[in-house]
Design brief:
single chain, about 450 residues, mainly alpha
Length: about 450
């Protein structure tokens, strides 16, 4: 079963756009897991349950991101081996990646299940929310092995230039997720546990599907169960990109946990408004993240083939795609934001929750354009094998700056607006630094040839 696309040859703009569109759609469908959770629980289980699910988002991302970051390393390493025509290296990288997914998945499940309550208390989660939030997290993290198997498997497929089948998988599992959520919450009256069950069932479907594709492949991307083990040399390569990417995601999430803690101090309506806004704004972020994922693979393959001019061209195309996407999303939210937000709350609390959500939307949504250069160039740096540099930019200019903002600036004028201003401030600063750093890194790498 031959699949994928060689990104080292052919028209760059056409190939890049065709490559990232399925990634964008896949990201949207994957986000439907949490969006469906939020919408169903908000409409049919009340604002307390909505706040319970919403209060776990930053925390679950914090725990998940380190391990999911390793899948970025798997993508880069597999793409480089593929671009260089190194079949032995590719074989070892694939089987090491699957091993990592299995090991880290069960470790993550244990951490999430046993320590979720402790983490939620450290975040000052309100007493009327923490009980349901803890139950949701415990059930949710039981699906961690399936989640990581899907993410690593999809990373391998993207390294081959195959972005369509992950899309098909998520389309099917997303429909299953929505159906299960509705059944568990409305029919079985399981509340937050019901939406967690629907989510992990969908993740299991995704994992089975992507592993089946790799097992049935007839080319160099074939997965052989008897060969699944950790190859030290490939592990080190994956870790060199994956750990910085994971730490980068963790630092983002840690800063968001601190922001969430500040939001928690305003009560459950503020929490509910934040999570409702987040479930729309995340689609704008996914546009940028999808472009980043696309450029990681594109640059990775061409680094392996030593085709530097194509890297430059791909970077320009990616930047244009990201700016257009960010602008279009902001325009869409200007027109349809308020009615879309109303879908997430029940009749009794809709007006106050939507007002709280619009407060965040009016600041954050229209600031995504400031994040474009950092997001795109971060992907280019990862594809070049410079993930540590990308991580440091984000740690200093986004994560640490957000912490400083919440701890030092926010207390001077403690309003929700001041919390949300941390987003455009940190995005803009990181993009300025990323452009400066990228100029010098590119010059050094291309000079060596």
């Amino acid at each position: 079963m031959k699949f994928g696309s060689n990104l080292t040859e052919g028209p760059i703009t056409k190939k890049f756009v065709y490559f990232i569109v399925p990634i964008i759609l896949s990201g949207f469908l994957q986000q439907l897991y949490s969006t469906a959770d939020t919408m169903v629980v908000g409409r049919f289980a009340g604002d307390t349950a909505l706040a319970a699910v919403g209060s776990t988002v930053a925390l679950t991302n914090l725990i998940l991101n380190l391990f999911i970051g390793l899948s970025v390393g798997a993508n880069v390493v597999c793409a480089r081996h593929f671009g260089a025509g190194d079949k032995k290296g590719l074989h070892d990288a694939i089987h090491t990646s699957v091993s990592l997914a299995i090991i880290s998945g069960f470790l993550l499940a244990a951490v999430g299940f046993f320590f979720s309550g402790t983490f939620l208390r450290l975040m000052s989660t309100p007493n009327d929310v923490i009980g349901q939030a803890n139950l949701y997290m415990q059930v949710y993290f039981l699906g961690a092995p399936a989640s990581l198997l899907y993410n690593f498997g999809a990373a391998i497929l993207r390294a081959a230039g195959d972005t369509k089948r992950p899309l098909y998988i998520l389309a099917f599992s997303g429909i299953a997720n929505v159906a299960l959520n509705l059944f568990c919450v409305i029919v079985l009256k399981l509340g937050v546990i019901g939406v967690a069950i629907g989510t992990i069932a969908s993740q299991l479907i995704s994992a089975i599907a992507v592993i089946t594709i790799l097992l049935k492949s007839k080319d160099e991307f074939r997965l052989n169960i008897s060969h699944i083990r950790v190859h030290k040399s490939q592990l080190l390569k994956i870790a060199s990109t994956g750990i910085p990417s994971g730490l980068n995601g963790c630092m983002f999430s840690l800063s968001n946990v601190i922001i969430q803690t500040a939001i928690n101090s305003f009560g459950k309506i503020a929490i509910a408004g934040n999570v409702v806004a987040s479930n729309l704004e995340i689609f704008g972020f996914l546009l940028l993240s999808s472009v980043e994922q696309g450029v990681v693979t594109f640059v990775g393959q061409n680094m392996g083939a030593r085709k530097f001019k194509r890297i430059d061209s791909a970077t320009k195309v990616a930047m244009c795609c990201a700016f257009v996407g960010a602008g279009a999303f902001a325009l869409l939210m200007i027109v349809f934001g308020r009615p879309l937000l109303g879908l997430f709350a029940d009749d009794t609390s809709r007006e106050v929750v939507v007002s709280a959500a619009m407060l965040k939307m009016s600041i954050v949504i229209y600031s995504y354009i400031f994040h474009v250069p950092n997001q795109v160039l971060g992907g280019v740096l990862k594809g070049m094998g410079r993930a540590v540099i990308s991580m440091l930019i984000n740690v200093v200019c986004i994560c640490l700056l957000r912490v400083v903002w919440v701890l030092c600036v926010f207390p001077l004028h403690p309003t929700l607006q001041m919390v949300y201003y941390s987003y455009p401030i940190t995005w803009g600063s990181s993009s300025i630094v990323a452009m400066i750093v990228y100029y010098f890194v590119r010059k050094k790498i291309f000079k060596k040839g």
